[in-house]
Amino acid sequence: MQDEQMANPGGKPPARPLDPIDRDILRLLRTDGRASIRSVAEQVHVSRANAYARINRLLDDGVIRGFSARVDQERAGQGASAYITLKIVQNSWRTVREQLGMLPGAAHIALVSGDFDVLLLVHTEDNRSLRELVLTRIQAIPEVLSTRTLLVFEETDLDPEV
C-alpha cells in the first residue's frame, strides 16, 4: 500500500487516455455545462446509459472537476482584473497557496517557473480595491518576497476545446 501511495501521492486515480467520444463529451460540457444527458447522448451518438456512465467515470476519475458558469467579471461588478506575479520564500508554496486562496477575488493560482514563483489572477471592484488587495493583503503574507501587478485591459474567453 505504501508503494502505491508513493507512486500516486495525490491519491487521484491514474490518468486514462480519453477516446474520441470522451473528448466530444468534454467539449460539449465545456460549452454547455447544463446540457442534459439526453442531449449529450444524441450529439455524440451513444445511448443515454452510455453517456451517463461516461460522464460519471470522467467525474470519478477527476477529469471533470465540477460544473461552473463563465462569468463576465465587469458585468458582475468586478471591473478591475490583474495578474499578480509573486516571488516567495523557497518551499513555502503550500502555505502561500492556502493564504492566496482565501483572498477575495482570487480566481486562479499557479506555481510556475521562471523569473517569479507564483502567478495569481484576481478580479476586484475597481483599481482602488486592487491596490488595497496587493498592498495590504498580499504583501502582508510573510512568505511573499515581492510582487508585480499586470493590469488586464481586455480579455477574451477562448472557445472551449479538449
UniProtKB/TrEMBL annotation:
A single GO molecular function term of this UniProt record: sequence-specific DNA binding
Region (Disordered): 1-20
Origin superkingdom: Bacteria
Keywords assigned by UniProt, alphabetized: DNA-binding, Transcription, Transcription regulation
BP term (GO), one: response to amino acid
Record bears the keyword DNA-binding: yes
SMART domains according to UniProt: HTH_ASNC
Gene3D superfamilies: 3.30.70.920, Winged helix-like DNA-binding domain superfamily/Winged helix DNA-binding domain
Gene Ontology CC: one annotated term: cytosol
PANTHER family: LEUCINE-RESPONSIVE REGULATORY PROTEIN (PTHR30154), TRANSCRIPTIONAL REGULATOR AZLB (PTHR30154:SF34)
Name the record gives this protein: AsnC family transcriptional regulator
Protein species of origin: Streptomyces himastatinicus ATCC 53653
